[in-house]
């Protein structure tokens, strides 16, 4: 069912019962009024994932729209930044002169929160399709707000006030390539609350992921591993997951404070190129709480 926004000429089509929406009637390359931007932000907070179809975006367009949502980070993996626009991180399996031009190649990229390993983790990301394979390479998202709200009370009590240990090294060992010495020094293990309060909406969400959450402080490893596995299994139920099949011209904006994601592998004979910006939270709401 498509809903008409009275504030601006938008059609909003929810994707699932709990999160995600397709937004029609807007070109992100166009100059927007403040009222239009505020309405998009409102829907982003409400639906957590916004899909804009049939976009024809230059790099400047991608950066310009993203900047309206917050300050942009220059990603620590500088080897995969766009040469002329470092605000853009390239996700790709393309090689030029024998070197990859982007991150994460064509294999499985397991469930993770972007930058959960940083003191000021990203609030959101905008991912735009530039070149996609004919099949595979789909991105899955998990609604961690609903997963927390429906979590059994006993398990809620177990993790209340607990901190998770986050490791970017663990993620790289599983799905990516190792960081250099400087990057490693900036991405040491860090703790984050297992239940995060959203800095805008105030809703609580599970803040953990199989790719980077390697333990719980104050709990023995074997017990911690068992609790985390129970939480991972709970979050990945079909009721909480949306599978996105990419089309050219898709621009997908997700809320990194309350959704985690993964990418399925695809055939390496096909090239895939995605442009991603990383949107930072306001400084006073930077540290997860």
From TrEMBL:
InterPro entries: AtsK-like (IPR051323), TauD-like_sf (IPR042098), TauD/TfdA-like (IPR003819). SUPFAM superfamilies: Clavaminate synthase-like (SSF51197). Residues 12-278 form the TauD/TfdA-like domain. The keyword Cytoplasm does not apply. Pfam families: TauD. Keywords: Dioxygenase, Iron, Metal-binding, Oxidoreductase. One of its GO terms (cellular component) is cytoplasm. The keyword Metal-binding applies. GO terms for molecular function: metal ion binding; taurine dioxygenase activity. GO terms for biological process: sulfur compound metabolic process. Belongs to the TfdA dioxygenase family. PANTHER family: ALPHA-KETOGLUTARATE-DEPENDENT SULFONATE DIOXYGENASE. This is TauD/TfdA family dioxygenase. It comes from PS1 clade bacterium.
């Amino acid at each position: 069912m498509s809903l008409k926004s009275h504030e601006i000429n938008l059609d909003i089509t929810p994707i699932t019962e709990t999160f995600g929406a397709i937004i029609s009637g807007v070109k992100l390359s166009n100059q927007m009024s403040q009222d239009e931007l505020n309405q998009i932000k409102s829907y982003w907070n409400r639906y957590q994932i916004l899909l804009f179809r049939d976009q024809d975006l230059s790099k400047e367009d991608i950066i310009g729209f993203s900047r309206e949502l917050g300050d942009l980070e220059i990603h620590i993996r500088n080897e995969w930044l766009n040469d002329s626009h470092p605000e853009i991180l390239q996700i790709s399996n393309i090689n030029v002169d024998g070197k990859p031009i982007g991150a994460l190649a064509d294999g499985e990229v397991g469930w993770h929160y972007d930058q959960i390993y940083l003191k000021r983790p990203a609030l959101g990301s905008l991912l735009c399709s530039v070149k996609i394979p004919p099949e595979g390479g789909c991105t899955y998202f998990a609604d961690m707000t609903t997963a927390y709200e429906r979590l059994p009370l006993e398990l809620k009590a177990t993790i209340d006030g607990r901190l998770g240990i986050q490791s970017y090294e663990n993620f790289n060992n599983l799905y990516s390539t190792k960081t250099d010495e400087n990057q490693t020094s900036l991405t040491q293990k860090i703790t984050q609350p297992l239940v995060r309060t959203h800095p805008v909406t105030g809703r609580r969400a599970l803040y953990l992921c199989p790719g980077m959450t390697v333990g719980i402080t104050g709990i023995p490893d074997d017990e911690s591993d068992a609790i985390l596995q129970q939480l991972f299994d709970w979050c990945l139920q079909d009721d909480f997951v949306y599978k996105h099949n990419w089309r050219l011209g898709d621009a997908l904006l997700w809320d990194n404070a309350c959704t985690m994601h993964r990418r399925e592998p695809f055939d390496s004979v096909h090239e895939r190129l995605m442009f991603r910006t990383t949107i930072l939270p306001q400084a006073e709401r930077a540290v997860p709480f």
